[in-house]
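A sample follows:
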Amino acid sequence: MLSLVRWYNVLLITIGLYLSSIFMLQEDVSKITVLKELSLHLNILAIANFIMAGYIINAFYDFEKDMINHPETTVFDRIISKKFCLNSYIFFLFLGTVLSLFLGWKVFIFNSFFSTGLWIYSHKLRKKPLTGEMGASLLSVAPFASLSLHYMQLNSTIFLFVCYIFAITFTREVIKKMVSLKGDLIVKEKSIPILFGIRNTKYIILTLMFLSLAPIVFIFPSILLKPIVYYFGLSSILIISSLYLLKHAKTTTHFNKINNIYKIIITLAVFSIFLY
């Protein structure tokens, strides 16, 4: 069950939300005071429940393709019954909704749209080229928008950081389509490589890689004297290295290497908030 709800992704996002609250959104408030706020814990717990529900419903709609691309790690309807999974989906969705009710109407409405967006993505958007990848990327940064709404606070540095997270997530989503090309072909699902061809998709990825460097350029002046500058220096090196790998990428293994690099970039991005 933990595998199905992608516990490591949920944990990573949860850590990112706490770090954002402490070091970015409430940097002028003592860390103890921030952590004493019950509404913060309720909001993050609600978001975590919605995300787990989202992973379950995504596994429901992606079952056939997952059995082709990575049958050894697919647990939905193979190790865990379909009925148990769908009951768990309803439970997580209900719990997230109840918790959101205690956070004020603005956060409740936003979280409700977020949970609905997760279902729309799994049911409709993920099957469509570009909109699916863009939808997944927007949903990845939506929890941080929920916290900004919770504190009613947003500055240019935080905005640029969120844009950067969106850009690298969007890039990785397109790269993942190159990795799962075989499964998409078999289940006859439209994807960017199938629609535009492998060569043109590589140009799309190349463009996105360059675009993900743009927020770094704009954010650099405001973080020049902060330790987080080392992360952005490292991420720039990793993105440029990915550009070289992309040029010579031909097989699924090659694209999976780039995918793993972007996993590292995203993971380090979360923990880099500690250095802000």
Summary: DSSP finds 13 helices and no strands in the chain. The first helix runs from residue 7 to 25. The radius of gyration is 19 Å.
